[in-house]
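Researcher: I'm comparing several assemblies side by side, and this is the next one on my list. It has 594 residues spread over two chains. Same procedure as the others: predict the full complex and return the structure.
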Amino acid sequence: MTTTQHTTRNQTPAPAASVSVATSRATANAGVTSRRVVRSEWIKFRSLRSTRYALAAVALAIIGLGVFMAIGEVVAEDVSRNGTVDALGGSLSGVGFAELLASALGVLLVTGEYSSGSIRLTFTAVPRRLTVLVAKAVVAALTVFTTAMVSTLLAFTVAQRLLARDDITLSWTAPGVPRALIGAALYLAVVSVMGVGFGWLLRSTAGALMALFAVFYLLPIIEILLPASTGDRIGPYLPSNAGSAVMRLAPGPLLEPWTGFAVFVGYALLMLAGAALVLRRRDA
Amino acid sequence: MIEAFGLTKVYGDKTAVNDLSFTVRSGMVTGFLGPNGAGKSTTMRMIVGLDRPTDGEVLVNGNRYVDQGAPLAEVGALLDAKASHPGRSAYSHLLALAASNGIGKARVSDVLDMVGLSDVAGRRTKGFSLGMSQRLGIAAALLGDPDVVLLDEPVNGLDPEGIHWIRGLLRSLAAAGRTVFVSSHLMSEMELTADRLLILGRGRLVADVSMAEMTAAATPVVRVRTPQADRLAQLLVVAGADVTAPEPGLLAVTGSSAADIGRMAAHQQLVLEELTPVHPSLEEAYLAMTHDHVEYAADSIGATTGRTAA
């Protein structure tokens, strides 16, 4: 198909004016592939200040708050003397705030296109919308994971150094520590994917952020208001609780770390599936 | 080539496009003409798969748009000038689009050159004027060196030099064998560029004509002012012309040339105070065609109220 077109095109005489000229080189290998769409989304990501800043803010929140807590442990010497410092030294304290930023980042990747109108151009270039949906989720997950991973490692290293002055040793190999550090980065990556999902579903930045707020902060409050027996049964399955189980050191009322994370990933995938359904039918 | 078969789009209780069938051929510029709200943009959005037809379908080079393997190499579309993220540079905007279809960086620079935006390629599009945005939109449409070019109101916001440039571009694309489909609500815009016209009114196809047919349809009128209007009118009617009298002493004659009327008057020794051939206006012919299909007619124009209400 493509080759025949190029043949016929080359036979037509070149236009007299200087404006349009077919350079077969430019579009010879043209075609949409998933990999190319991911590349395209990555270019969009890195060419916007807002997304770059959001990513930097994720890093800053994790490192800043993590280190801040470690300093707090040092200052509150009585705490450290009593040996109540957990194996992470509070280095994941920033995750709760970074979660807001990571979800906002995911939202912006999608709603930025709707508010500017560029979504039409995006879908004209890639009419198979599902590919775009997945590509945005992939870019959000990979960038947030990489940034968060580096940040949690840094925060832990700094906390280690700070607490070492107080003769408190934080070990890389203490039970649950590697899992919690990696888990925090994975958790934030999935949170950003949820942001992408809400972005597709609601198309407006404010709407999607409100929805995320409801899921992460309102649902836990509702759970508290429920009768204890019901609340205890539902509680572990709430998205925020299920997801954060992977970062907990001590076993608690939550699901097992990786079970909880799997449930959390399940929620994110369900949302993307819902978004995909809506996207197929909707006029852009 | 673009082929529409019974294309219909209903939004709620409003039918934007109603059973539209047409073919847009390659190697020429086809104008898509109609008043605001006639359904031109909706039709264009359906061609590139942005809106789902309620009924019917539209094919580009024989395929549904969603099945195009390299959409940007098949169709280049300018649907909305302000369709770039304000915080992204013109270059990055085009680069991201190009990447999705596997089009190289060299082509991005080429199209920026073509539309004359190379100097501002690194600037964020937030500060772009409507004319610059329009040029950026055209660059995006040309990115894949497409077979089919769709432009929705491309001259909006362009300065005279830009308008001139766009006309040249459209002509050269058509000359290179491409399919060029351009919408406008102004006949005067189409007069200079289009080879063929699809005229839309209230979502329906009103006319599918060549420019030559359109010109022929716009009958010339000769204005004749004479104190002996009745006498001259009689003579002209006998000679086979159509005569109306817009006001006493003034005749509007169709079906007879100014030369013939002058000769006839001289022969009968009638006084002529004015003899003006009124050049056929395509605008008028177009307005006459779409008159009953105007979405928002001005009611204040007394003469038309009766007809638009129908």
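Model: For your comparison table: Chain A touches chain B through 51 residues (CB under 8 Å).
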